[in-house]
């Protein structure tokens, strides 16, 4: 087993597989919307949930308590909740966090060992699964974002940052990477030192949310929809 190498063969394969699965969902969205997909949604939720729960047990067996307070951890929990219940607000946050957060994490993963290390497998099943859950919810019409959605999720994201930032300050943790940057190369390497990169991330997050809202805005403009996009 060797250390993880960004954009090495194992990384590229999983990125390509995720992109292919997401593209298929988008192309097949008409068929996907016309069927009873409860079993499929439950199966995807089960994979995500079992994968995450197993990691808590593996970590506990090594004397480590995993607290799911990273943004991607919460995106996973919301994706599971959204897949099982189809609650619009839950699906909405899972969509934006899944693409703006978990997708970014798959491109610049914070892992240390390459395939077939357990934590490599756990990381990519979880993060790629959340990305695919977000795409699936959108492709099947369970997510229909508006501009209000963008600002609502941005407000929720800031609430998350405030709460975990206070927790980081009190405990020395690094949830949300708000106390320090990840060891592996990431987008944060290009937006300045702490604490300025946190302010830069405010703009990056908002721009990302607008990017993932853009398909709906463009579709409404093309249809001449008089409603606020």
Q: Which descriptors would you attach to this protein?
A:
229 residues; mainly alpha; 8 helices; 0% strand
Compact summary:
The chain has 229 residues and is mainly alpha-helical. The protein has one domain.
Spell out the helices and strands N to C: HHHHHHHH
Number of helices: 8
Structural domains: how many? 1
What is the β-strand count? Answer: 0
Q: Over the alpha carbons, how many angstroms does the gyration radius reach?
A: 18 Å
Mean pLDDT: 93
Q: What portion of residues belong to β-strands?
A: under 5%
How would you classify the helix and strand content by structural class? mainly alpha
Share of residues in helices: 55-70%
Largest sheet: none
* Assembly state (oligomeric): single chain
Distance between the termini: 50 Å
Plain-language structure description:
With 229 residues, the protein is mostly helical. The chain has one domain (9-223). Helices cover 69% and strands 0% of the residues. It contains eight helices and no strands. α5 (88-107) packs across α7 (147-171) and α5 crosses α8 (196-223). The longest helix has 28 residues, at 196-223. The chain starts with 8 loop residues before the first helix and ends in a 6-residue tail after the last helix. The model has no long low-confidence stretch (mean pLDDT 93).
